[in-house]
């Protein structure tokens, strides 16, 4: 099994002044067995990478274009993120799938671009409340997994984040049984397609992970860490989540 991972997704939050939250994350030294990534808005990637100095925390982007360069006003390529100091990039977050009409095919192309640039892609998927209530969760995430992951996915270049849309930013969290069911199905889906790599591809849970529920979530089988939104913005919330993962090992 690979190392466990906590990734923070700042979304469209954060200016220069917030880099102090990173400097306050002395926690990295206290969690030597856990990988830590922060994905700030693109404007901060370079400065954050610099601010982290020698701290064992990686920086990630929140999206990338599928092409390397060209006439795509406002977009950023995986190469550019790499050049700015990023090691990871989130692709296919449900907010981008909704706001920017991103399809599984587009997400797969972005993940391929990330791999080509040498970045680890954090590929997000998850069902809506309507799909959950209709009993379609495993079908939906199975389809997303099959269509959003490129053939070249390996344990080192790919992380999958299960994020039920209804749990994002809502304070609602699936039961441990529900998380275990989906993560078990995702692991089986990975095993079918990626054989030897499947166990090493990390499966993160995301959606309202907080200091008070992190330990319970990290105890669930096939949960290799978390993708954290709101609670990644303040070091006082993020640090205890990282500590909970370290203590679960
Ligand atoms: P949340 O967001 O932790 O604020 O629910 C998670 C995410 O969208 O990655």
From TrEMBL:
It is an enzyme of class 5 (isomerase). Transmembrane segments: none annotated. Substrate binds at residues 9-11, 169, 208, 229-230. It catalyses: D-glyceraldehyde 3-phosphate = dihydroxyacetone phosphate; L-erythrulose 1-phosphate = D-erythrulose 4-phosphate. Its EC number is 5.3.1.1. SUPFAM superfamilies: Triosephosphate isomerase (TIM). Keywords: Cytoplasm, Gluconeogenesis, Glycolysis, Isomerase. It is found in: Cytoplasm. Its main location: cytoplasm. GO terms for molecular function: triose-phosphate isomerase activity. The active site is at 93 (electrophile), 163 (proton acceptor). InterPro entries: Aldolase_TIM, TIM_sf, TrioseP_Isoase_bac/euk, Triosephosphate_isomerase, Triosephosphate_isomerase_AS. Pathway: Carbohydrate biosynthesis; gluconeogenesis; Carbohydrate metabolism; erythritol degradation; Carbohydrate degradation; glycolysis; D-glyceraldehyde 3-phosphate from glycerone phosphate: step 1/1. Pfam families: TIM. Belongs to the triosephosphate isomerase family. Homodimer. Involved in the gluconeogenesis. Catalyzes stereospecifically the conversion of dihydroxyacetone phosphate (DHAP) to D-glyceraldehyde-3-phosphate (G3P). This is Triosephosphate isomerase. It comes from Limimaricola variabilis. The lineage of its organism: Bacteria, Pseudomonadati, Pseudomonadota, Alphaproteobacteria, Rhodobacterales.
